[in-house]
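Long-time lurker, first post. I've been practising inverse folding by hand and with some scripts of my own, and I keep getting stuck on stretches where the structure tokens seem ambiguous. Below is the full token string for one chain I'm working on. Before anyone asks, I'm not after the true native sequence, just a reasonable design that respects the backbone. If someone could post their per-position residues I'd love to compare against what I wrote down in my notebook.
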């Protein structure tokens, strides 16, 4: 059992003083702050303070009406401060997490399965099933066979042709998601030929989105007209795509014209240039058939004399490389974490977003920053029209599809459902036939310190073990209390105060307090902090959703 009152470690205190953090040295509670006007600082955090043992206050540099939705996200789950320090911010923190959730990690047989057992000391309603087992297989057909044979109780992402098979089987049940995702072609504008606006625009005209959706996507899918899915606030129907109303032949002619203007005419060998397209061979709701889609894009661009070499990468290495801006041309996607434009637009195109598309465009970042600070949805909507127009015209990526997808379960599983944000709570489900629930998804989790992960399969596993201050209500997606029992904001939405829930214990038996919350956020916020380590050190969600790091590396 930890004492609520404790003194900061000396190395943390010395570092805090050296980088202008302000710990409350005369007290037992942690407090960190920075100057919003500091040169080069683009973040929205001004301070994080443990007001007392059970109260945490966040002060922001500008209003943020989406703040509750952001802190509910699993990337901002709370870790025990002693465990953060003991692990050095990495190591066992990634493979042996200590959370507060309804399940705790019993065993991770890497490459085979992950076993979670019920947290008998859980503060809330205990999990129904004593055991949840995560397994994975990249092939949708193999997952369905496992479900049909009874070896598993639920599976993610049935294949395009399997929806009808599942619906016709009385032993199975299909649960659909609403397509709150996007599949896109990423292009890094720091790498030729994608440093040319004309080239990026040409590819936007050349890719036949409707053909890809019709041939390779399941029912409920749609061709993307902009990055935002229509069901998420921030989609602006007034903003039409560049190729709106054009025939396929007209699109190809326009693409050829732009490529010629960019200085890439067809050569004597019939080609303009050669590029490599990278992808990871894992199925996602936004991309159910990555291999054949890559081949189709290759064939489509060959019509223009563009030679596309296809290169498959391991999932974790692919995500790390794209996030670091090391890939020129690649296939990736995104599923909603919470239902707001900031989750899609700010994370990918805002000031603090990753380097995956290369240099940022002020025509995009400035309206996004303005919209994120407004509480009035009508005012925000008008600004998102500007942002979506700039994204369309500057083409940092090509949005292709919003994928219809779902999950399938044994029909007997009570409480089964498919979360629109891929955050199924297995603690709510029950198998009347035995004392475990076996779930099969597309890929193995990459790591279980989800402050430093962005992969959906990984986040789903984390969400069973760890908890954030708030959570998303099943069915509505609205933020509700989790580790915080109550919260409030100042009138100008720059101060957010959270009251922690009494009696919450971590899986090691220690008590949750405000210092755990402060340090969990600070090690993400301050890129110079000795515990800012993680698995690869990107902490992409924090910088993407909160505008940037304090003390970012010189390379940024």
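-- Answer (accepted) --
I ran through it position by position. Result:
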């Amino acid at each position: 059992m930890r004492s609520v009152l404790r003194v900061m470690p000396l190395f943390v205190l010395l570092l805090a003083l050296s980088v202008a953090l302000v710990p409350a040295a005369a007290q037992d509670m942690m407090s960190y702050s920075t100057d919003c006007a500091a040169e080069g600082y683009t973040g929205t955090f001004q301070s994080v303070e443990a007001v007392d043992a059970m109260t945490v206050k966040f002060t922001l540099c500008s209003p943020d009406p989406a703040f509750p939705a952001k802190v509910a996200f699993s990337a901002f789950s709370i870790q025990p401060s002693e465990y953060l320090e003991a692990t050095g911010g990495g190591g066992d923190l990634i493979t042996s997490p200590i959370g507060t959730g309804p399940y705790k990690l019993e065993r991770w047989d890497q490459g085979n399965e992950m076993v979670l057992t019920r947290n008998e000391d859980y503060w809330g309603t205990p999990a129904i099933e004593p055991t949840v087992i995560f397994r994975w297989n990249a092939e949708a057909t193999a997952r369905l066979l496992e479900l049909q044979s009874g070896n598993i109780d639920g599976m993610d992402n049935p294949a395009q042709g399997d929806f009808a098979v599942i619906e016709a089987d009385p032993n199975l049940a299909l649960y659909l998601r609403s397509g709150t995702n996007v599949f896109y072609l990423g292009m890094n504008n720091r790498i030729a030929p994608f440093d040319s606006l004309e080239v990026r625009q040409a590819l936007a005209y050349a890719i036949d989105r409707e053909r890809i959706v019709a041939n390779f996507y399941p029912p409920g899918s749609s061709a993307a007209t902009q990055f935002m899915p229509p069901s998420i606030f921030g989609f602006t129907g007034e903003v039409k795509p560049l190729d709106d109303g054009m025939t396929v032949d007209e699109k190809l002619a326009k693409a050829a014209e732009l490529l010629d203007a960019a200085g890439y005419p067809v050569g004597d060998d019939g080609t303009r240039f050669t590029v490599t397209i990278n992808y990871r061979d894992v199925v996602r709701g936004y991309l159910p058939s990555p291999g054949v889609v890559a081949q189709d894009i290759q064939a489509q661009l060959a019509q223009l004399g563009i030679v596309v070499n296809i290169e498959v990468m391991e999932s974790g290495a692919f995500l790390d490389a794209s996030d670091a801006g090391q890939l020129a041309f690649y296939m990736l996607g995104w599923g909603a974490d919470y239902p707001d434009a900031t989750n899609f637009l700010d994370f990918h195109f805002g000031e603090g977003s990753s380097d995956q598309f290369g240099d940022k465009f002020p025509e995009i970042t400035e309206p996004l920053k303005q919209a994120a600070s407004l509480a009035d949805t009508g005012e925000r909507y008008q600004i998102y029209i500007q942002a979506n127009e700039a994204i369309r015209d500057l083409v940092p990526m090509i949005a292709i599809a919003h994928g219809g997808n779902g999950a399938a379960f044994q029909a007997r599983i009570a409480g089964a459902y498919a979360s629109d944000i891929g955050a199924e709570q297995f603690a709510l489900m029950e198998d009347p036939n035995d004392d475990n629930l076996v779930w099969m998804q597309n890929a193995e989790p990459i790591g279980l310190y989800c402050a430093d992960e962005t992969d959906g399969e990984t986040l789903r596993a984390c969400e069973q073990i760890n908890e954030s201050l708030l959570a998303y209500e099943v069915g509505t997606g609205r933020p509700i209390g989790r580790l915080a029992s109550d919260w409030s904001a100042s009138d100008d939405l720059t101060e957010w105060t959270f009251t922690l829930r009494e009696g919450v214990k971590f899986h090691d038996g220690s008590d949750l307090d405000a210092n755990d919350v402060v340090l969990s956020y600070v090690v993400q916020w301050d890129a110079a902090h000795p515990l800012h380590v993680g698995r690869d050190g990107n902490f992409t969600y924090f910088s993407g959703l909160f505008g940037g790091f304090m003390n970012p590396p010189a390379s940024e």
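A couple of notes from the structure itself: The chain has a mean pLDDT of 92. The longest strand covers residues 45-52. Happy to go over any region you disagree with.
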